[in-house]
Amino acid sequence: MPIAQTACPYDCPDCCGLLVTVEDGRAVKTAGDPTHPFTRGTLCPKMAHYERTVHHPGRLTTPLRRTGAKGAGEFTPISWDEAIKTITDKFRAVGEQYGYEAIMPYSYAGTMGAVQHNGYHAFFYKLGASNLARTICAPAKGAGYKSVMGASMPTAPQEAQQSDLIVLWSLSLLATDIHFQHDVEIARQNGAKIWCIDTYATRTAEHLADETLYVKPGTDGALALGVLHILARDGLTDINFIARHVQGWHELQAQVLPRYTPEYVSAITGMNTAQIEAFAHAYGQARAPFIRLGSGLSRYTNGSMTVRLITCLPAAVGAYAHAGGGLLTSVSSSHAIDRELVYHTDWRQPGTRTLNMCELGRLLNDKKLAPPVKALYIYSSNPAATAPDQNAVLQGLARTDLFTVVHERFLTDTARYADIVLPATSSLEADDIYPSYGNYCLQRGMAIIPPVGESKSNWQVACLLAQGMGWDEPFFQQTDSDLVEQLIASTAHCWPDLPVGTAVPTRQQSQQAASLRIDPSQLRCGIPTPLALPANYKMQFRTPSRHIEILNPAMEPALPDYFPPTGDAAPFHFVNSPDARVLDSSFNERAELTHGHTMELLMHPADAQPLHLQDGQRVTVSNARGEAQFKLSLSERTPRGTVVTEGVWSHTVAGGLNTNALTSQRLTDKAGGSTFYDVNVDVRATE
Length: 687
Prior knowledge:
Layout: E1 3-7, E2 17-23, E3 26-32, H1 50-54, E4 64-66, E5 75-77, H2 80-98, E6 103-107, H3 114-118, H4 121-127, E7 131-133, H5 139-149, E8 165-169, H6 173-176, H7 180-189, E9 193-198, H8 203-208, E10 211-214, H9 220-233, H10 239-245, E11 246-247, H11 249-255, H12 262-269, H13 273-285, E12 289-293, H14 303-317, E13 326-328, H15 340-343, E14 354-356, H16 360-365, E15 375-379, H17 383-386, H18 390-397, E16 403-408, E17 420-423, E18 432-435, E19 441-445, H19 458-468, H20 480-494, H21 507-514, H22 520-524, E20 529-530, E21 548-549, E22 572-577, H23 591-594, E23 600-603, H24 605-608, E24 618-623, E25 626-634, E26 642-646, H25 651-654, E27 680-685
Parallel strand pairs: 6-15, 7-14, 8-9, 8-12, 9-10, 11-21, 12-13, 15-16, 16-17, 22-26, 23-25
Antiparallel strand pairs: 1-2, 2-3, 4-5, 4-17, 18-19, 19-20, 22-27, 24-25, 24-27
Helix pairs in contact: 5-14, 9-12, 9-13, 9-14, 12-13, 20-21
């Protein structure tokens, strides 16, 4: 039986290499690709049987028209011709009456392939629809890092093998980045110590960490300042590195750090001073400390500032000057391709408004919004389950005057509210190219089986819609494979990305340089291709000053400083951590992963006692936005004052509203990101 190489399409930093066995046009087995330089042949539990998702009996196989009430999930099959005509007729009608900005595309990372993830962009730009700020994950994290490091290349994960101290900070590695464990274990065998910093005892903390620190949610930035205070106080900074490569250290040391004594930081974070001192000394005395920074700590109203403060730590000790030292947030392998080949941003119409996806609930219900959102086109996302303030989102989706289209593989929570549902391909049924944001690697994914039923890729449907609108641009007459080949060719002039102010080389020079860094012929065969990094890449600081910019005059404030998260007027911090069995709401269709799942709430026994709550009973968790029900699990894994649930479960699986009934549409301090963790709740016994 033939075995094809491809890549995992999901929103995960690892972007696993896959080997898929095909028999009679069906995928029958999924295995890890041992030739992948980062994932190295292993898979997470979700992808170990990806063929069960691809050929699941619940796959949508034909376009559908709604026949019942919104949310009831009652549909009848229709043809593709009828579906496309219905959609384009409605788009024209909305555009004529309200203007095309009344049409809102909504998507995120249901697939991470460069073609399918971005395949609708050009269509909606040309249509004149509202632009979408796709900020629901961790843009504040990127903004915080860039405010200090500019376009500097983050440290490659494999460098951690040479570190003597690895810090897993707000990273539930065993749920969201499991292949980094390979590098962590190699470092441990070489004598490295592993520290884990989080809001509660994750499985990662329990199984991988030598030392653990637990902070009050949203206070990680204060901890970073406390560590910097101790490094400066005790002479643990790298004075020579700072003098040569850091802008603003002395201002930070004089104006900010004196306030962040261990005692002051202890009062903010809930950690005792001995823990703060121990971590600061371990970090400052390490030869090559490596921080792997997760995203959870950026999902607070102070999220960007938190990341900005943590990014100052390797600068203070000169970690970048040593093999194995540095900080990894998200890498830039997507910079190796020219996404503009798919985006076509030159078709974006001047003055068109931008709507933030984190505020979907407000946008759908705001009677003063001009023009109102009258048509909603959703793909690669399930906002009814994953968007914040779930009650507001569901209220908006239920509007009878809102025309909604959902392009999906399954009848998701969101699809049940659609007027038209379109069947989508899986990653095994369409060509694409897959960058990673957790390692410097590119992969090509081939269409290795026929489409299931009448399903079509995002790009194919965008082309059908363009034809339905009467457009004849050659751009919309290309195939998925045409775009992939162009993206592969673009690596010749896109990698490596250039420092700010560097002259653009000739195409011949680019091709010569690229030939040392990437082999496009491998991508045409689907082989994972590591992007070789420029020599001494960690010391090439791509900022306007060519220094690490602790003091950044373009930022407000110019010097970083801690401020508290917003939270709510309720007693318990509420943290929604990842679960290894699902990804956002994906994989909820797989019975062997969900097992009739009931959402659980972890609570410290000492917090439950005065509330007369017992282990295993049903509890209602609530705040001003809504409430959801959980099965209580008393556990000392969570500190007092913090309650934790793991996984974003489809509310059709969980038996009611999920965690997002409690989350807020508030945005982060920079970049308009989500504040999923900046939540407080009450807990009571369910009546």
